[in-house]
């Protein structure tokens, strides 16, 4: 029993972490963050980065736990959710792969931690679709302990993702100097390809769910 729960926890943690890190693409936030923080002091810049990641964590966690209830309220099946989420993720990946700008819009004066950094920068459509898709998989697990384990592992993956994003934003100027525009572009293209693959996997999972329920 313990070994089974450990394998389940590792599966959901690694699955959530890889998917979220790929779709949020922390390095892609650097240009937007630097442009928004251009007139801020170092202390204020760090504070905005910290608040943005905290807000992003809250939004994604709420999406994880409320996702199934939202689906049930609107009568949306798990299969439909996975197909729609997969298409959303694949579209974002396609735009990144072929160089279409997907940067978050600039905010106005004052704090930009919630908008546009946390939403849609961190908790954008793709990331929210991912966590809601994971929540639909958890809902199909049998046994309360298995569900608790899966939820805990996924929350941990969200927390680690936001921590990585904070580290990248905190060292944004250093990373930008060393990678340069070309390096950031290469990372974006590779990430885009991975997102297309993840999106196709989501669609395939949704189709299988549809066929099983037919």
What are the SSEs and their pairings?
Blueprint: H1 2-24, H2 29-36, H3 42-74, H4 78-97, H5 113-122, H6 125-139, H7 144-170, H8 172-213
Helix pairs in contact: 1-6, 1-7, 2-8, 3-5, 3-6, 3-7, 4-6, 4-8, 6-7
Subcellular location: Cell inner membrane; Cell membrane
Transmembrane segments: 12-34, 54-71, 78-97, 117-136, 148-169, 189-211
Main location: membrane
Describe this structure in words.
Pfam families: MarC (PF01914). The chain crosses the membrane at residues 12-34, 54-71, 78-97, 117-136, 148-169, 189-211. It is a multi-pass membrane protein. It is found in: Cell inner membrane; Cell membrane. Belongs to the UPF0056 (MarC) family. The chain contains eight helices and no strands. The two termini are 32 Å apart. The protein has one domain (2-213): Up-down Bundle (Growth Hormone, Chain: A). With 214 residues, it is mostly helical.
């Amino acid at each position: 029993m313990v070994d089974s729960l450990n394998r389940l926890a590792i599966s959901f943690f690694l699955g959530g972490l890889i998917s979220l890190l790929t779709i949020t693409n922390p390095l892609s936030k650097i240009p937007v963050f630097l442009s928004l923080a251009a007139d801020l002091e170092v202390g204020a810049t760090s504070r905005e980065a910290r608040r943005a990641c905290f807000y992003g964590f809250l939004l994604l966690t709420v999406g994880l736990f409320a996702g199934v209830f939202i689906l049930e309220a609107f009568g949306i099946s798990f299969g439909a959710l996975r197909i729609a989420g997969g298409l959303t993720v694949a579209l974002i990946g396609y735009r990144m792969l072929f160089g279409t700008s997907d940067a978050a819009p600039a905010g106005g004066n004052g704090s930009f931690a919630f908008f546009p950094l946390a939403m849609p920068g961190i908790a954008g459509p793709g990331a929210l679709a991912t966590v809601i898709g994971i929540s639909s998989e958890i809902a199909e697990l049998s046994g309360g302990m298995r569900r608790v384990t899966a939820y805990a592992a996924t929350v941990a993956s969200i927390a680690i993702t936001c921590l990585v994003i904070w580290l990248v934003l905190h060292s944004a100027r250093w990373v930008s100097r060393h990678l340069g525009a070309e390096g950031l572009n290469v990372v974006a293209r590779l990430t885009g390809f991975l997102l297309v693959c993840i999106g196709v996997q989501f669609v395939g999972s949704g189709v299988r769910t549809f066929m099983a329920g037919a």
